[in-house]
Please model this.
Amino acid sequence: MKQNLLQFITRSHHALTRSLPALIIWSVLFSFINHGCKTADAGTSEKWVGTWSTAPQLVEPHNMPPEPGLTNNTLRQKVRVSIGGDSLRLRFSNKFSNSPVTMKKVQIAAANDSSAIDVNTIKNLSFSGASQITMQPGSTVTSDALAFNLKPRMDLAITIYFGQTSPDVTGHPGSRTTSYLMEGDHVSDAVFNGTQTDHWYVINGIDVKAPESAAAVVTLGNSITDGRGSGTNKQNRWPDILSERLLENPKTQNIGVLNQGIGGNCVLRTCLGPSALDRFERDVLNQHGVKWLIILEGVNDIGQTTDSAAAGQVAQNLISAYKKMIDKAHKNNIKVYGGTITPIKKSFYYKDFRETARKTVNEWIRNSGEFDAVIDFDKAMRNPDQPEVMKETVHDGDYLHPNEKGHRVMGETVNPELFY
Model:
């Protein structure tokens, strides 16, 4: 409409400008049309926002793909997104591998039970227009944007037919989700009957085109955030519970939740996966549409200290690390919420000096004023009669990791008003 009207005005410009009144009319009309169209464009503006993510790491030997392996075979992986959209793009990672990885074909589809997909929803991914791509060592690739009816909390199947792959693999072992592997090219099969494994490989993130008002929250953490103790294929980690609650609230229904937990991860040094400090830029700042960050990490640093002097030093180093992350996030207009470290007494980590360090860190999180808000996971999970111990009903048997009920308690501890 705008183009046709402007063409009409341009053609009439010579005649209109022969008199001053006509010139004034032309100027007002042009301004009205141009302003009206700009207003319409602004009302429909969109941006890329993350709807799902997982933190990449070098896969340990005991978590490698089972036989027949990835090379020249097909892997189907399932994920559950947070927010929906009608256009998306996927990210894949070969960050920690020393050799190239070739993906010959990549498809997405709506996932049904087990390995089944709705074949009517299959879409082929491309990379700069090509169906095949080779990821070089240390690299990450993003697919071309494509139209897809992605619904909130939808289960999406990502099926990859590989060419040559790397002996060492980039992935995410703690998927709590079953993947399916078949020999040869079965990328479009409705159902897989091959090998099963509860790990993710090479998949890294999904962005959707969302309204300008949409945004994302990153949950940065260790195995508790990664979902240990949640149900396999139930998608009920505490960040999942948070996502469901945000979607139920009209004021927060356009907020994606990006789980960047790694089981066994540390803040200060490399444990399993790179330290939180080392991966902060990639897993937080480089995610799309991030407006908030929840940090719940530090228990693995404390739990590996050998004496009171070491524990005291780690506590102070954790506080310094939190300050660094807060500062970096604030410089990127990201609010940071501090999660208190949950109880450890009776767990394999417990020592008196480690408990002292945990209390020191939690005291700082609660009272320093450095965080934009505090989410008191410790208070929510502890036994009121024994504050150093988790409630019997919320841990998975080791007094350290939440069970399914515990994940729900943690997810419900986060106040949706933090995201208004």
Observations:
- Residues 1-43 have pLDDT under 50 and may be disordered.
- The longest helix spans residues 20-43.
